[in-house]
Structure formats: structure tokens, C-alpha cells
Write a structure and sequence with these properties.
CATH topology: Metallo-beta-lactamase, Chain A
Number of strands: 11
CATH superfamily: Ribonuclease Z/Hydroxyacylglutathione hydrolase-like
Largest sheet: 6 strands, mixed
Order of helices and strands: EEEEHHEEHEEHEHEHE
CATH architecture: 4-Layer Sandwich
Distance between the termini: 13 Å
Radius of gyration: 17 Å
Length: 220
């Protein structure tokens, strides 16, 4: 993630930096179906990294700062107003899934002179989206992890937003722009870009939707 005085420049999720293959997770694995489309060098300078999975704090040997729900940190931007990053609720599956899928978080980013941005993280809960809207809505940009991810881990329950939930989230958040991520490149995604486009068109929201091609950058 990089910030400027006029907007945000965001790069899609880090999974697109990895080769296509099976990735073991405990006694199971997830299959990546699209190869790397960029190298870390292609991404360029990175000011901050937002990690939805809070468990990374232990795996990365203290290099990660956990951000509890509704708490915030302020990141300096030189002589400009600081960037505020607020942790917001997320749930990676149906109610009660946390012992299996682990704790996750979303984020809201705000700063004077920049659009407000909601990053859903690996969230499947419409209730949590509503809670964010109550505190921060309307937001300028909603970056939604979609794809309706499903695995046998929770008997096929959705682990991220479905296309219908994503369209409803756009309404609830009052988002002027919606950028869906996390919907292609892995075998456990059950909905892709065509279904997203159709859902937003049916809901009369296609003017808000920005579906990026792999490797594409967008500045808002």
C-alpha cells in the first residue's frame, strides 16, 4: 500500500506473488491455480502492509503489530496529516468458526485529504460490515474480499463474502467505489468476476464496481 496527497495506490493481495501449486496447511492443502503475475520488485516501495490474519503476529517473530477491533494507529506521512488505520471486526466463516479458521480483522483507513477506505479482510459476516458502516459510513472506497471461498474445513460454509453479500455491503457502507479482491487464482473460490459483475448489475450498482485485471493498478 502506498499513499499520496491525492489518493490511494493499492496492489492486490500477496497471493499473486506466489507460483501455482498446492500449499499445505496442517493436514490439508489449498491449490493455487494461477501463477505469479509479479515479483516483489515489481510492487515497488511499500509503506504499510495490512494482514487480515492476526495469527501472523506469532509466525513473523514480532514484526507484526496486532490491532484490536476499533483501536487505531497513526502512520506518519512526512509534513502531511497522519494516516489513521483502525482495526474493525471480521469473521472468517459462519458464527463460531474462530477456533477453526483463527482470528481475522478488517481495516478502515482515513486521513485528511484522502478518501476513506474500508478493507474487509477475510470476512464472511454481513453483521460486521454493518457495524463498520454504523461507525464510519459512508465510505469512499470499499475493498471487499469476495469469492465465496469454501472448503471442506467447515463443511462448505462460506469463508468470505458472496457476490450478493458484496453488493449488499456496497449499499450498507454507502461506498462510492467498490474494488473486489480475493475471487480468483485459488481452487476454493466458488464465485468469480463474472458473477460479481452480474450481481452488481442486477442490484443497479455497476457504476460503483471496479473489477481489476490481474496486475492492474488503480489510483483513487
Amino acid at each position: 500500500m502506498r499513499t499520496s496527497g491525492v489518493g490511494w495506490s493499492a496492489v492486490a493481495d500477496r497471493s499473486h506473488l506466489r507460483p501455482a501449486r498446492d500449499y499445505p496447511i496442517g493436514n490439508r492443502s489449498l491449490r493455487k491455480t494461477i501463477g505469479a503475475i509479479a515479483s516483489p520488485d515489481d510492487v515497488g516501495r511499500v509503506d504499510a502492509v495490512l494482514l487480515s490474519h492476526a495469527g501472523a503476529q506469532q509466525r513473523l517473530d514480532g514484526a507484526v503489530r496486532a490491532l484490536p477491533n476499533w483501536q487505531h494507529v497513526e502512520l506518519p506521512r512526512g509534513d502531511r496529516a497522519a494516516l489513521r488505520v483502525t482495526g474493525v471486526p471480521a469473521r472468517h466463516g459462519p458464527p463460531g468458526c474462530e477456533p477453526t479458521t483463527g482470528p481475522v480483522t478488517g481495516f478502515v483507513l482515513t486521513a485528511d485529504g484522502l478518501p476513506s477506505v474500508y478493507v474487509s479482510g477475510d470476512n464472511a459476516s454481513a453483521e460486521h460490515v454493518g457495524a463498520v458502516a454504523d461507525r464510519f459510513g459512508p465510505v469512499d472506497v470499499a475493498i471487499l474480499f469476495t469469492g465465496a471461498a469454501r472448503t471442506a474445513l467447515l463443511d462448505g460454509a462460506y469463508l468470505t463474502l458472496t457476490r450478493a453479500q458484496a453488493a449488499q455491503a456496497a449499499v450498507v457502507l454507502g461506498a462510492r467505489h467498490v474494488v473486489p479482491l480475493h475471487f480468483e487464482g485459488w481452487a476454493h473460490f466458488s464465485e468469480g468476476r463474472d458473477t460479481l459483475d452480474a450481481a452488481f448489475t442486477t442490484a443497479g450498482l455497476c457504476d460503483r464496481l471496479h473489477i481489476l485485471e490481474l496486475g492492474q493498478r488503480m489510483t483513487i
